[in-house]
Design a protein that fits this description.
homodimer; about 280 residues; alpha/beta; Alpha-Beta Plaits; 6-stranded mixed beta sheet; 5-stranded mixed beta sheet; 15 strands
Chain lengths: ~280, ~280
Amino acid sequence: MKIGYLGPPGTFTEEALLRTYTFPQDEAVPYASIPDVIEAVDRGEVERGIVAIENSIEGSVNVTLDVLAFDSEAKVIGEVIYPIRHNLLARSGLALVDIDTVISQPHATAQCRKYLAAHLSGAKIIAANSTAEAAQIVCTHPGNVAAIGTRIAAEIYGLEILAENIEDFQDNQTRFAILGKEVPPRTGFDKTSIICFIYQDRPGMLLQILQEFAYRYINLTKVESRPAKRSLGEYIFFIDMEGHIQDKVVDEAIKCVVCKIDRVKFLGSYPRFKVAK
Amino acid sequence: MKIGYLGPPGTFTEEALLRTYTFPQDEAVPYASIPDVIEAVDRGEVERGIVAIENSIEGSVNVTLDVLAFDSEAKVIGEVIYPIRHNLLARSGLALVDIDTVISQPHATAQCRKYLAAHLSGAKIIAANSTAEAAQIVCTHPGNVAAIGTRIAAEIYGLEILAENIEDFQDNQTRFAILGKEVPPRTGFDKTSIICFIYQDRPGMLLQILQEFAYRYINLTKVESRPAKRSLGEYIFFIDMEGHIQDKVVDEAIKCVVCKIDRVKFLGSYPRFKVAK
């Protein structure tokens, strides 16, 4: 099976994919951006896509939510939760004291703010499109530069790990969505994701939506607002709940929400991620 | 009065500040990052700070929310809403067909995705820390590069505007928070911002918070979840409402929320932004 992911090789997405989801016969296909991965699923170029959807520190990955809401018919068919560990990577022979420039994706840089302030406070911070791209740049760069990136990127680009686990917060985890086109059958340990579009500014609308779930004892695992991309103050809401669309109460609750608001988009029902060990 | 903002000169924040908030006697002081602006307010190095808090397309500016929630005692004392217009900037003499590389802050690049796909589909996309930094790079870069940035950056760095208003969505507006240390008096056209910390996973807790406001006919202008930075599935909620903490119903509602949850942080009461013209 072909599985699209955010490349180049060495990204956190690839690491999460290789360590949790793929089988030996699968082929991981790198794409240049998250929208490209989702489009590849829509076009049928790959059977599956894996995209970061939420990080325990940074919050939602906006581009993923927005493409799923506005530009795609892909369904969420599974989820993977993977711990994020940041490492400081440099060419062999460089030591921490030599480093005067740090290159990384701005989110990774932000997640290591305290480490950088403590150990590399004078260093120049340069942005890259991904941590893997940063590692790629560092491996051929003649200067005293380091990248923030994955262990797998260190292996791929032949870099030394100058410092490991440099992230400010422990429990830095990312939830990835596995995308496809179908709705997997109910397993009894499932989650359902919907998007509620509320275009008129009716006070209390979110309250009324939440009541439909509370009334049926459906536990919501996430309520997240995103702009409706129309004007400030208009929002759409991503709601994740326990249960499967084949569960009668889930189906009923969503039908009652559909009656109340402008539009509900069903993003999928899928097995909840089970933590290994 | 000294007002801190995200530099270098030519950022959207500077443009919004100069066009809406400053008086001739004020001094705008550039800082390298949003956390630096907020810290400068906390330390009293500047009397005011201006930071982007929310964009109508991209959503909340996570770093602003996180620093206000976890690392600062600064208060929101005002707000400014300013339209964002993206422009393609290049050295004089270059035409659109010449451009093979586009440099910008990744959010700006994301906001011009459709324009770039239509007009510069083969171009390499390079990340910068801000649109102003991108303009700064482009003005001395020997290659066929363009930046996505402000009109003010074109003036500062002597660049030509190859294309204007290239953003994908109209109504691209950013709301900026003005930070200080005091609570401005009630004007009768105010907003109040709080942060609700809910550490235990108690189903329906958000519903119960929202009910306190609905019961008192207080209109919420924003409900936004952010990770609690502890583990996936734990959230804090930013709530903006109409009214001032000196309004009896607002004060009462917040006191009732305080009784129900782990912690409520009062971010400020301030005059709502009045759109000019």
